[in-house]
From TrEMBL:
It holds the Pfam family MEDS. InterPro entries: MEDS_domain (IPR025847). Residues 16-169 form the MEDS domain. This is MEDS domain-containing protein.
Length: 190
């Protein structure tokens, strides 16, 4: 993983990152690095992922980690996470996430999260995705945890890329970690 990001995570917990990945191999490497860094930092790692990749990741991790280390990683089914109400509804996603992280927050446990954001095609209205990312950005600040939002680059039309650059203060490229020049901080709710 980009060493600049690891250095940032050592000093700042509330880090919201856009990862526009190219290819399954690159994706798996970055995710496994993130999990590894989390385990070694003493963080619980919440991974929102589809069932197929969860099985693949679990098999790989069983060869690499002890039972105690494996218990630090929690997989959340991405279909249930994003579509719990039968449609992509940002407030429902936020509620699902809040319930998922509640035990970590209530017990003052350090955690980080990775969310694979995927759908067959980007048919959802752009404002819904942007609304969700603004909610996620506020949650990162409120709960002080790092979050990487992974989107497959080839499935990101230009208008979505522009929106995501506005809602993520940092961007992870395959070999670089940068601050997003287009980032616009979401207004805080009272």
């Amino acid at each position: 993983m980009a060493s600049k990001m690891n250095l940032l995570l050592e000093t700042q917990r509330n880090v919201h990152v856009l990862y526009a990945f190219e290819g399954a191999g690159n994706y798996m490497k970055q995710l496994l690095d993130y999990i590894n860094e989390g385990i070694h930092a003493g963080d619980y790692v919440l991974v929102v992922e589809n069932e197929r990749l969860t099985r693949e990741l679990t098999q790989h991790m069983k060869k690499r980690y002890t039972e105690k280390q494996l218990a630090m990683v929690k997989f959340v089914n991405s279909l249930h996470f994003y579509w719990s109400t039968g449609s992509y509804h940002p407030p429902a996603i936020h509620d699902y996430f809040t319930k998922t992280v509640a035990p970590y927050i209530e017990n003052n446990l350090s955690f980080r999260s990775w969310a694979h954001v995927e759908w067959e095609s980007v048919k959802e209205p752009l404002f819904l995705i942007e609304d969700f990312e603004k909610i996620a950005d506020r949650a990162v600040d409120e709960y002080e945890f790092p979050l990487i939002c992974a989107y497959e680059k080839k499935k990101m039309p230009l208008h979505l890329t522009e929106s995501l650059m506005k809602t993520h203060p940092y961007v992870l490229l395959e070999d670089e970690f940068i601050a997003s020049p287009q980032y616009q901080s979401a207004p805080r709710q009272v």
